[in-house]
Amino acid sequence: MKVSKLHSWQVDTAQASEIQERLAGQVSRSSEVDTPRFIAKSIVNSPDDVVVTEETDEEGIVLKLEVADEDKGRVIGKQGRIAQAIRALIRVKAAKSGTKATLQIV
Q1: How many other C-beta atoms lie within 10 A of the C-beta of residue 1?
Q2: Cβ atoms of 35 and 90 closer than 8 Å
Q3: What pLDDT does residue 12 have?
Q4: 46-87 pLDDT tens trace
Q5: Torsions phi, psi for 84 (to 5 deg)
Q6: What phi, psi does 43 have (nearest 5°)?
Q7: Where are the alpha helices (DSSP H) in 2-106?
Q8: Phi, psi angles (nearest 5°) of residue 6
Q9: How many domains would you assign to the chain?
Q10: Can you give the residue range of the structural domain that contains 57?
Q11: In a domain, 20, yes or no
C-alpha cells in the first residue's frame, strides 16, 4: 500500500518493517537485561542496589540479578512466584531473538 501524502511522522508499511529489522538485534539484547532490572526496581525498597549483569556461556545468556539482602524475599516472592514470572518473561524475550536466557538471583 503506497501512501501518496506522507507527513513527517508517517511511514509506510515497508519502511516500518525495515526499521524493525534494523533495530531487532539492538533492542532485543538490551531489553533482556532491562526487563528484570525494571521489575526488580519496581518492587524492592532499595532500587539503587539493583544490579543486573549479563554473561554468556555454552547454554546461552545468563542474567545475574543482585539486590540488597533485605529485598531478596520481595524479588523471589511467595513460593518463588515472582522469580518464576521474571524468568518466564526473560525466556520469551530470548526465544524471540533466537537465544536462550536464564536468571540467577544473587
Answers
A1: 5
A2: yes
A3: 59
A4: 999 999 999 998 889 999 999 999 999 999 999 999 999 999
A5: -65, -40
A6: -110, -10
A7: 13-43, 72-76, 81-96
A8: -110, 130
A9: 1
A10: 32-105
A11: no
Cell of 27: 533492542
Query: Tens of pLDDT along 7-18?
Result: 444 555 666 666
CB 28 within 8 A of CB 92: no
Question: According to the per-residue pLDDT averaged within each range, which of 5-9, 25-29, 101-105 is highest?
Answer: 101-105
Three-state DSSP state, 15: helix
Q: Identify residue 91 by its one-letter amino acid code.
A: R
CA dist list (Å): 85 to 3, 31, 41, 57, 75: 42, 16, 15, 23, 10
State the pTM of this model.
0.69
* CATH number of the domain residue 80 falls in: 3.30.300.20
Sign of CA pseudo-dihedral 81, 86, 89, 94: negative
CA 38, 89, 31, 27 torsion: positive or negative? negative
